[in-house]
Amino acid sequence: MAGDIDLTRDVFHAIRGRDEMDQSSVDYRDFPLAKKEVKTIGILTGELGLSEEMGEAYGQAVEQLQKAGYELKEVEMPSLEYTVPSYYTIATAEASANLARFNGVRYGERPIFAENPDELVRKSRDAGFGDEVKLRILLGTYVLRSGFQDRFYHKAQQIRTEIRREFRELFESVDTLMLPVFPTQAFPHGEQGLDAFQQKIADRFTTAANLTGLPGLSVPGPVLNTLPTAVQFMAPAFHEHLLFECAEILKESFPIQSPGDYPAEYRLERG
Prior knowledge:
9 helices; single chain; five-stranded mixed β-sheet
């Protein structure tokens, strides 16, 4: 019976349909797919804050797209400077509000014993949440305090609206946008690399997709100094097919490689 079913087609239609129980889902048929193929790709210019290796990887990706015959258009995205602060303000506020239900009663880790409801909640959250989650809850509670919402949370929402506007205008002149994924390569084993604050700042390229609700796809780039690199593409809403087209080009240019000392069973190149 499985042979009579087009699993790829059926799964694709299933996951993109509207869920009546999910208010955040939308009907994709309200967004006609006007752009059927990629012709023009936006390329970020200016100071991107990339390491030497990541800058070289981004340049090599640009060269491969040029060789493939795409029209490349240099663009500037001033709003990228504000994606990280607005994202973490909104995300922590949502974490504070949404995780409030995790109190050990219906949701969350339930301790074996608690003297009273306050101790139940305290023990439940202490055992069930890691350090990063606790930090986000504390920050979110702070920005949602009376008198601070307008100063932080509402301002971040206004910035998000401006970022979405900038991307909407950008996609009137280009079909997709190519960005870096992370400003540095992976940290060597046993080294800390960037500290926690620097790692959050480094999310400036990836948080744009979260804030705008637009599709994004990370694609492997060249291997430099034995470490992999990557770039990412973003497209208008419900235009994931444009991302796949761009990914296919770079897939041929930069085949996935594994470090030379990887055991054979872990190699990505195996068939």
